[in-house]
Amino acid sequence: MDDIDRRILGHLMRAARDSFQEIGADVGLSAPAVKRRVDRMVADGRITGFTALVNPAALGWRTEAYVEVYYRDNISTAELRRTLEPIPQVVGVWTIAGEADALVHVMATDMAEIESTVERIRENSGVGRTISSIVMSRILERPRT
User: Fold this and answer.
1) How far apart are CA 138 and CA 105, in angstroms?
2) DSSP character for 98?
3) Tell me, what's the pLDDT at 72?
4) What is residue 144's predicted lDDT score, i.e. its pLDDT?
5) Edge-to-edge strands of the sheet including 127-134?
6) Could you tell me which residues are beta bridge partners of residue 94?
7) pLDDT tens per residue across span 66-77
8) How far apart are CA 136 and CA 145, in angstroms?
9) Cα separation, 55 vs 94, whole angstroms
10) Using the 8-state DSSP alphabet, how is residue 125 labeled?
């Protein structure tokens, strides 16, 4: 990956709906050259997909929490995905260093839905305990560039 690819990726991360012509003007390439590079980055797995960032409030999600999940025994990342992905309020899952096995980002309409979601996470017989931290306000979020 060269500097131009990095600049194309940065532009896509900031404004993925821009045309190849607009991206090309930003990075100094023609639209067809940008398209070839983007197609190559998709083919080789550097770009894994395109998505829309949605305001959580548009989905009615005004409450969020980060839940540390402690399993009784070792758990594989595949098992984490299998058990947590079906829960629609779970919007992110990470394995982490430290005592907890996973950090789970939960978004919901209200505290009652947070509580029921945490209870659903705890339904897995391998979960020993959870610790929830409720987000009071979002102060700073940077796009990943």
Assistant:
1) 14
2) S
3) 95
4) 62
5) 90-95, 102-108, 63-71, 127-134
6) 103
7) 999 999 999 999
8) 26
9) 21
10) T
Question: 107 near 92, Cβ under 8 Å?
Answer: no
Tell me the one-letter amino acid at 3: D
11: amino acid identity, one letter: H
Q: What is the pLDDT of residues 29-40, one digit of tens each?
A: 999 999 999 999
What's the chain's length in residues?
Answer: 145
Residue 75 or residue 55, greater confidence: 75
Tokens for 59, please give them.
Answer: 């989905």
How many CB atoms neighbour CB 80 within 10 A? 20
Cβ neighbours for 132, distance < 8 A, ≥ 6 positions apart: 65, 66, 67, 68, 114, 118
Closest CA to 67 of 101, 28, 35, 18: 101
Question: Is the per-residue pLDDT at 4 higher than 60?
Answer: yes
pLDDT of residue 101: 96
